[in-house]
Design goal:
This protein has 227 residues and is of the alpha+beta class. The chain has two domains: 43 residues, no CATH class; 166 residues, no CATH class. Helix content is 40%, strand content 23%. It is built from seven helices and eight strands. It has a six-stranded antiparallel beta sheet with strand order 3-8-7-6-5-4, with helices on both faces. It has a two-stranded antiparallel sheet with strand order 1-2. Strand 5 and strand 6 form a beta hairpin. About 7% of the residues have low confidence.
Length: 227
């Protein structure tokens, strides 16, 4: 009996060892550094601000701030992916809505997109008309590239809408040595703008489709009347 118990215990220990080997973090090769990242670099996380502080920056004058969850049906997810030009795994997103009286001041959404090796966390603000109002980096987990959190960089996202490319070498200036981080945060900003457009602005007849129609009508009447 005791021999059986010892044998079973041995099997459990072997299983734990094997499991540890399987789930242990694999070394990460950095093509720029031309070496594997150290454990310290892999576990690096630089915290810039909390989610709560970011919300206060995004919606500073709102009387009320409420939180909602956007849930994507497969049809809606396919539409969003088609509009932004890339696929993603998330099926829901949390969104803050700032209100004063009966008017919406704006929106704020926390996003996590992968940079070179790991995810970075940031918040994107959107005004009531669908333009990006601010971008604030919350947590940066890469060994380098945190310059994307500096105001002199992310100020270029302010005023961007779903009609803008929001891409490097199009309307976004890159940061040398942080290209993947810039691409990641740019893609995230675009996705936030499209999500707000689809779920909030279009139902209120304030979305990109309504704006495009008004511009088209203005162009037609301008041609007819010479304005």
């Amino acid at each position: 009996m005791f021999a059986h118990v010892r044998f079973s215990y041995l099997l459990i220990l072997i299983g734990l060892v094997l499991a540890t080997d399987v789930f242990a973090a694999e070394p990460i090769w950095d093509s720029d550094l031309k070496r594997y990242l150290t454990e310290e670099e892999i576990n690096h996380a630089e915290v810039f601000m909390t989610e709560e502080d970011a919300v206060k920056i995004m919606l500073p004058k709102s009387e009320r701030i409420r939180k909602e969850v956007i849930r994507l049906s497969q049809e809606k997810k396919d539409l969003i992916e088609q509009r932004i030009g890339w696929k993603f795994s998330e099926e829901s997103f949390e969104l803050y809505i700032g209100e004063t009286g009966d008017k919406i001041d704006g929106y704020a959404m926390v996003h996590n997109t992968i940079g070179k090796h790991k995810h970075m966390t940031y918040m994107v603000g959107v005004d009531a008309k669908g333009a990006c109002s601010d971008v604030e980096l919350l947590v940066f987990r890469e060994a380098k590239g945190s310059e994307v959190g500096r105001k002199r960089f992310n100020v270029q996202y302010e005023g961007k809408t779903v009609s803008d490319p929001i891409r490097i070498n199009k309307d976004i200036i890159n940061i040398s040595g942080a290209t993947m981080s810039v691409r990641s945060i740019s893609a995230g900003v675009k996705r936030v703008l499209v999500l707000v457009d689809e779920f909030y602005l279009k139902p209120a007849r304030l979305g990109s489709d309504t704006v495009a129609t008004k511009k088209s009508e203005k162009g037609i009447f301008g041609s007819l009347f010479g304005n």
